[in-house]
Structures are given as C-alpha cells and as structure tokens.
Automatic annotation (TrEMBL):
A Pfam family: TnpB_IS66
The protein, known as: Transposase
NCBIfam families in alphabetical order: IS66_TnpB
Top-level taxonomic group: Bacteria
Organism field: Intestinibaculum porci
Length: 120
C-alpha cells in the first residue's frame, strides 16, 4: 500500500455497518472496543456504512506522528463487503484490500484450481 507506506502490519475490517459520521477519536474507540487492539499499532482498520457505498479507514502513521482518516464514496455501485467471520471483525490480505478498492468481491475464487497429487 504505497499511499500509506510499507509499514502496515495487518488490515482489519469491521464486518458490521458503522455510523461514518465519527471522527478519528470515534474510530479509535471502536478499534479498542470491537477489535480489542491499539489504534496506534500500525494496522489499517476499515469501516463501511449500511448502504455499502462509503468506507472510512483509520491508520496511525508513526513517521508523521499522527492518524490518517481515509474516506471513499462510490458514485455508483457498492463495495463487495460480504466477509465470513465468527466475530464483528475480520483480517484481510493486501490483495483483498486491492480487490475491495477496485470494486471486486473481497472473496475471489482462486485463479488456478488446486492440483491434486497423482502418481504415474
């Protein structure tokens, strides 16, 4: 993720809709209460609204000693946000994050079928 640097450890998404009128302190409180993590741990935390056409992401950038609050609104369509999770959040990969930002489903089928070992 070049726009934030290469020091992002993990990417987490809140699987339930969130009121996006919150500010940095509001999202930091959600990170602590729902994710049970520190908002300053160099992870990217993503939140989506009920309509799935807006997202906000919170990230603490130690290099600039502050928080980033990123916001994206789609003019058409929705974010493909179905994530199977046992709890109220899930971890996603950088590839899944790119798919999400490109308007694709976050859970893509694999490009190649898994090879079953066969002996000749």
């Amino acid at each position: 993720m070049n726009f934030l640097g290469d020091d992002i450890k993990q990417i987490f998404v809140c699987t339930e809709p969130v009121d996006l009128r919150k500010g940095i302190d509001g999202y930091a409180a959600i990170v602590q209460s729902i994710f049970h993590r520190s908002p300053m741990d160099h992870c990217l935390y993503i939140f989506c609204n009920k309509s799935h056409n807006k997202i906000k992401a919170l990230y603490y950038d130690n290099a600039s000693t502050g928080f980033w609050l990123l916001y994206k609104r789609l003019e058409k369509g929705t974010f493909k946000w179905k994530i199977s999770s046992d709890g109220s959040y899930a971890e996603i990969s950088e590839q899944q994050f790119r798919w999400l930002m490109e308007g694709l489903k976050i859970n893509q089928p694999t490009a190649f079928k898994k090879i079953e070992r066969q002996y000749v």
